[in-house]
Specification:
138 residues; alpha/beta; Rossmann fold; 5-stranded parallel beta sheet; two-stranded antiparallel sheet; 3 helices; 18% strand; globular
Length: 138
């Protein structure tokens, strides 16, 4: 576990087995959750989000076969393009499951907006508390 910005714990894979960790349970039923990325990590995240009752929105120019199938069945929302700050407008929570630059952009933008962002794999970024401000769409 790493103390991120403001001393808020930031956790995720790759932090090492010897480091402390905790489980965080969030009430996601009916909440919009943004997932940036369309690969394996995004597929696993979307699967878990759907099981928790979240409304998953995936933003990625490409999708895994499993995400393509979920989109075709109308079970997830998809924007087939690169991430943009406006994607955070209605999100309650956001996950970066993509390349480092998209993850950095998501985390930077989330600090200006309301959603909490978890960037698995890039442990020094991310926020663990929602902001009171609303996101300005650009």
């Amino acid at each position: 576990m790493d103390a991120g910005r403001g001393g808020v714990p930031v956790v995720g894979p790759g932090l090492g087995q010897a480091e402390a960790s905790f489980t965080l349970a969030l009430p996601l039923h009916g909440r919009r959750v943004l997932v940036v990325g369309g690969g394996t990590a995004a597929t696993q995240t979307v699967t878990a989000l759907r099981a928790a009752g979240a409304i998953a929105r995936v933003v990625s120019p490409t999708l895994s076969p499993a995400l393509t199938e979920l989109a075709a069945r109308g079970l997830i929302e998809v924007a087939s393009r690169q991430y943009q700050m406006r994607d955070l407008t209605d999100a309650w929570l956001a996950f970066a499951c993509s390349d480092p630059r998209a993850g950095a952009d998501l985390v930077r933008d989330s600090r200006r907006c309301r959603p909490t962002a978890a960037d698995w794999g890039y442990r020094r970024r991310g926020s663990a508390h929602p902001r009171a401000r609303r996101c300005a769409v650009r």
